[in-house]
Fold MIA40 protein.
Amino acid sequence: LLVSSMVGKDRIIFATKEDHETPSSAELVADDPDDPYEEQGLILPNGDINWNCPCLGGMASGPCGEQFKSAFSCFHYSTEEIKGSDCVDQFRAMQECMQKYPDLYPQEDENDEKSSKDLEAASMEASAAKEEKGSS
């Protein structure tokens, strides 16, 4: 008999001795060398954003995933002289969404503009890595 209950964001599962004596039915799946998302980083070879990249820390999923994708896509593909200057509305929508979920998206101090600088830095690093990869 398995008993499951939620405590905050964690799930506690109680298992009996018999549960542990039953062999596991879990199957391990070998890494697929042809998986296009495997170790690709933030930007895929074709220039698309890899939404499955662990570097995004799950920002592309969750309650504000769509707003994050919209803002980050806008920034990534921006051709403005000041990159991302045409994405203010998308970033505002993302920020407003995140404020509704303070436990999931801790807010930085108002003086600290870290989150937008982190996005910009991540994009710049990805661009540099892409250029470096392409020049070899």
